[in-house]
Design a protein that fits this description.
Layout lengths: L2 E8 L2 H10 L3 H4 L11 H7 L4 E7 L10 H21 L4 E6 L6 H12 L5 E7 L1 E2 L2 E2 L6 H9 L4 E4 L14 H15 L2 H4 L5 E3 L10 H7 L2 H7 L3 E2 L7 H11 L20 H9 L5 H15 L4
Parallel strand pairs: 1-2, 2-3, 3-4, 4-7, 7-8, 8-9
Antiparallel strand pairs: 5-6
Protein name: Amidohydrolase family protein
Keywords: Lyase
InterPro entries: ACMSD, Amidohydro-rel, Metal_Hydrolase
């Protein structure tokens, strides 16, 4: 069975070295980045799940958090080039990659979209985070990016980060709240109304949204409740077939894509096996399961 993992991560060695120069304590602040499968592509190949190609994006180590706009953009350029080279040199592992931006330099980020993402078929979209500089991803400052991405039909991968205003952030629940809140803000700001073909892929199976469908439908205006179902989502729930059933009920089969957060979640190589088992346990035909495993990704990303 062929699978396309749409949400897996890397921390490539040249970029990681530069980030360590900016913050030598980074491995202690984010212990998960010490996983060698993030960095070493030989290690990656030795542990790669069978019949799987991954779409890779960087873990959330962002130059914009350490450098002013011009320098952040320069480092992002180098990181993106390393990402592209890694895909080109490891086509047996990777189906494509997702570019970084520097959101403290919007003009240069727009240039990255036009001059790096568009010309390189291996670059399938860009990654944004639920918050940048303490502001929601739906903040008006970032609207030019959504306009440009919608204009060129370039998908967005949305990954959570902690809201540093909160004193009790934790990896189990907080990120799921942050994703859900960002989804609500993107809906309420009207992006799906303004940009009907906008494509946003939400990590962790749409976070809290499938389990609060009744509140979404009864509290939001009808058009916003409808817009909530326009997100695409992955299957990165560390298993949990029953939860995936609710995800499918809410977003629909066409909007659910196989994604595992590899190599994170279950050390050392990720949750590919348990997520595969959870999908296989769904009350779907094998054709419908294959649509999740690879068909929807091929449709969304132009064939792959």
């Amino acid at each position: 069975m062929n699978k396309i993992d749409v949400f897996s991560h890397v921390l490539l060695p040249n970029f990681y070295e530069k980030m360590l120069m900016l913050d030598e304590d980074l491995p202690n602040k984010m212990p998960f980045i010490q996983n060698p499968v993030l960095i070493d592509m030989n290690e990656r190949r030795a542990t790669m799940p069978a019949d799987t190609h991954q779409i890779i994006s960087y873990v959330n180590t962002n130059p914009e958090d350490y450098l002013a706009g011009k320098m952040a953009a320069l480092l992002v350029h180098k990181a993106n080039e390393e990402l592209l080279t890694t895909v080109q040199e490891n086509r047996d592992l990777f189906a494509g990659a997702v570019a970084m931006l520097a959101l403290n330099n919007i003009p240069e980020s727009l240039r990255i979209i036009e001059e790096f993402v568009l010309p390189n078929e291996e670059i399938l979209g860009i990654q944004l985070f639920t918050r940048h500089f303490g502001k929601s991803v739906a903040d008006p400052d970032f609207r030019p990016l959504f306009e440009k991405l919608a204009e060129y039909d370039i998908p967005i991968w949305l990954h959570p980060v902690f809201d540093e205003r909160k004193p009790d952030n934790n990896i189990i629940f907080s990120w799921e709240y942050e994703l859900t809140q960002a989804m609500l803000e993107l809906v309420q700001v009207g992006y799906f109304q303004n940009f009907p073909d906008l494509k946003i892929i939400i990590h962790h199976a749409g976070a809290m949204a499938p389990y609060f469908a009744g509140r979404i439908d009864r509290i939001l205006p009808p058009e916003q409740a409808t817009d909530f179902r326009k997100f695409y989502v992955d299957t990165a729930l560390l298993g949990n077939s029953k939860a995936l059933e609710l995800c499918l009920d809410f977003f629909g089969l066409d909007h659910v894509l196989f994604g595992t957060d590899a190599p994170l979640g279950i050390l050392p190589v990720g949750a590919t096996d348990v997520i595969t088992e959870a999908i296989q346990a769904l009350p779907l035909s094998q054709e419908e399961k294959n649509q999740i495993f690879c068909g929807n990704a091929k449709t969304l990303f132009g064939g792959l």
